[in-house]
Amino acid sequence: MERFHIKRIKLYVFLILASITLLLPDVMLRCFLNPGVFTQKYVSLATTLFSVGWVLFFVLICCLVLPKKVGKTVFVVLTLAFSVLSLSECVYYKIFDQFFWLKGIALAGEGSDYFGYAVKMISPEMIVFLVSAFVLMLITLFIWQKPNVEKKQKRILILLPVVLLIATHVGMQPWLYGDSTNEWDVWRKPRIVYKNFNDVNKSLEISGIYQFSYLNLYTGLFPKGHNLSKDDRSMADEYFTLKGEPVPNRYTGLLKGKNVIAVMLESVDTWMIDKEHTPTLYKMMNEGIHFTNYNAPFFGVGFTLSSEFAFNTGFFTPVSASSASNFSSNTFPYSLANLFKEAGYTTNSFHFNSPEFYNRGLMHKTYGYDKYNSAEDFGIIGIEAELDSNLIKNDAFYQKMVENMPFFNFFITYSSHLPYKGNSAKLELAKEYWPDFIDEEEHLEKNNAQVLAKDTDEFFRILLERLEADGLLDNTVIVAYTDHFAYGISDGDMLNEWKGETLSYCVPAFIYSKGLKAKKIDKPMMTIDWAPTLVNLFGLSKEARYLGHDALSTEGDGFVYYETGAWMDETMHYIPSEEELSDEEVVYIQKQTQKAKDTTRINDIVVLGDYYRKR
What we know:
By secondary structure, the chain is α/β, with parallel strands linked by helices. The chain has helices spanning 2-33, 41-65, 68-96, 115-119, 124-142, 151-171, 190-196, 200-221, 230-243, 279-287, 303-313, 336-342, 360-367, 388-393, 395-402, 425-433, 444-469, 492-499, 530-537, 583-608; strands at residues 259-265, 289-291, 294-295, 346-351, 371-374, 407-412, 476-482, 509-513, 519-521, 525-526, 559-561, 567-569, 573-574. It is globular and about 90 Å long.
C-alpha cells in the first residue's frame, strides 16, 4: 500500500512539474505585458483557462497517448519551441512596443543579420524564466511517468481540457453577449477583439501564448475568403465614386515633365537631421516642401516593406497579410511607377541588396519598374555596398539612374539601418569615412546613428553635385521620406527624449526641386498620401483612385490612422484609453474612428481582392 502511495505521489509530482514547465513561457509573456491593456477582470481568467487547457492537453497527450520515447520528445519540442517563441515575442515587444504575428516568422531569415542586436534586448528576468523552464524540463524527463489508466479513462481525461478550451472560446465570442453598437470603442471590448483577431497586442493578452498560436495557425491554414464578392466590389465602387476626382489646386501640374528621384530613407529619424551632421538633407528639407507632420504608420509585417508598398501603390499592406510580397501577382494600374511610365518616363528602382531579399525583384516589377537594380549589378560588393555614398560614387550606378529622360527612379537607402552599437562592419566603415563626426561625449547609439546618417547625407550631396554637373538638377525633383522611426535605438525613453514632442511615427519627409518655393505643410500626412500628392503635382492620370489625399491640397483635412485603432487629424490625436470623454467628444471620435475603419475595409478589398485586376 505504501509503495502504491509513493508511486501515485511521483505521478502527481510529474504531472505538476510537466504542467509548470509548459506554463512558464505563457507566464513570462503575461508578466512582461503586465498590467496589460484591458481592465476587465475576466480577461485574466480567460487567458488562464486557455493556457491551462492547452498545457493539460499537451501533457496528457504526451504521457497518456504517445509511446514513452515519442511523448518525451514531443514534450521537449513543445517546451523549447514555446520558450523560444515567448522570448522572441518579448524581445520584439521591447523593440517595437508590439508583439508579432506568427506569419512574420517567414521573414525572420531576412533579419538574421541583426540577431546580435536582438540578443542585447534579453533581460535578466527573461533569462530566469528560460533557465527555469529548461531545468524543470530536465527534471520532468528524469521522473517521467506513464499513468496506468484504461482506454475509456484516457478519453475522458483528454476530453476535459478540450471541453475547457471550447467552453472558453465560445464564452469569448461576442455573439454570446451581443456585438458592440459603438464602433469607436470596440478596442475596449475583449470579446470583440478576440473575435476580430486583428490587434496583435490585445489578442495575445486575451488568448495567451498557446491559444494565440493556435488561432494564428488556424487563420493561416484556413484564411477568411478574400475573393472579391459583388458586395465588396459595389462598396469599393461607391467609395471611389463618392470621393470623386481631386480638386485642382495651385500645385496641380507644377512639376509636370520633370525627372523624379524618390528616396525612401532607411531609419533616418527627425533628430538626425541638422546643419552639422546632415547639412544637405537639412538644406533640401528647408528649401523645399517640408511635410512637418508626416507619419509612417505600420501595417502587416515588416516596417520597411510596409512603407515601400504604401508609397508605391497608395495602399497599405493588409494586417492579415504575412508580407507585401504576397501581392506580387496583383495588378496596380495606378501605382506611381505605372503612371509615370504611362506618361513616357523610364522607371527604375535601386537598393544595395539582392533582388531576392524581400522578393523585391518581383515586387518592383509588380509596382511597374522596368528593373530592380542592386549594388552587385554594378560590381559594388561586400560591406562597401551597405553605405549609400559608395553607390552614388559608382559611375555605372549613377549613369543607370539618368541614362534615359524623363526618368522616375526609386532609391532605398541603407546606411542608417541598425545596429547602432556592437560589432557592425557597416558602422565601423562609416566611422572610417567620417572620423570627425565621432563624439565620445555623446550618447553612443545617438552618435553612431548620426555618423550613419552622415553617410546617407553624403549620398545626397554627391547626387546633387553630379546632377548639377550634368545640367540635370534644374529639371529634377527629389522626393524623400523615411520608412520608419529609428526603432533600433535600444532605449525607447531616450529615443522619445531625442524626438522631443514629435510623435514616434512622425519622420522626415520633403520634396526638393531647385527653384521650388520653400513651404511647410503642417497638416497630418501618411504614407498612402504620397501617391495622390505626386499624381497631382506631376499632372498624371486624373482617373487614379486612392485612399489617401493630396497633402498639398487645401480641400479636406489631413488624416492619419494606425493599426492600433489610434488616429490623428488636425483637431485631435486620438489614442484608445480609459480616459472619460464628453458626449461631444464621443460623437466626433465615433465619426473619425468609423472613417478609419471604412478606409481599412476598402484598402483590404482593393489589395486582398485584387480589385483593379477584375475591373
